[in-house]
What does this fold into?
Amino acid sequence: MSTDQNKLRALLEYMELNHKVARRRLFAEEAYDVKDEKQSWEWLFGWCEAKDERAQMWTWFQDEYPDAIMLKEGYYETYK
It folds into this structure.
């Protein structure tokens, strides 16, 4: 597998983590709005865990992120 493919795969994983963080926060707010406090807290704990996962990934991915975005947008040749 090429390095470019690894970068794109990591970018996809990072974007999925961003999506997971956003979804869990929205679900927590929706549960709170309908007065389901227990479910709201469960979503909030999940939101915190997802943020931690994203932060851990960012520590090693932050240097590769600009190249991965450029590959995704088609500025570089994707496969070498």
